[in-house]
Write a structure and sequence with these properties.
This protein is of the alpha/beta class. It starts with a helix and ends with a strand. It is 49% helix and 14% strand. The model has no long low-confidence stretch (mean pLDDT 88). The protein is built from 4 helices and 3 strands; from the N terminus they run αβααβαβ. It has a single domain (2-96), classed as Rossmann fold, CATH 3.40.50. Helix 3 packs parallel to helix 4. It has helices spanning 2-13, 27-32, 36-51, 74-87, and strands spanning 20-24, 56-60, 93-96. Strand 2 (56-60), helix 4 and strand 3 form a beta-alpha-beta unit. The longest helix has 16 residues, at 36-51.
Amino acid sequence: MASHMLARIAADVLSQKPTLVIWQTGVTDAISDVGLTNFSNTLRRGTDELTSNDIDVILIDMQYYPRAEYMAGYRDYLNAMRGVGKETTSRSCIALIS
């Protein structure tokens, strides 16, 4: 889940001093239906924390999930990620969404 990954940014990522983080998330959030606002805010907080530490970010859309077409709202999570990526493009963040 994105919230678990967010918690790891300070604990595990920043100390490594990367120049780039590739972040793929969203499947578990959509399946668990954590809420679009919660998901978007989590992504924003994570990308803000990374870019404020001069780390570039690439958001990659959710990995393939064979039952996605049967889940109401699944595509909304993908669109939420796309929205966060568009908001953050001026802050060294790119969203790679198929």
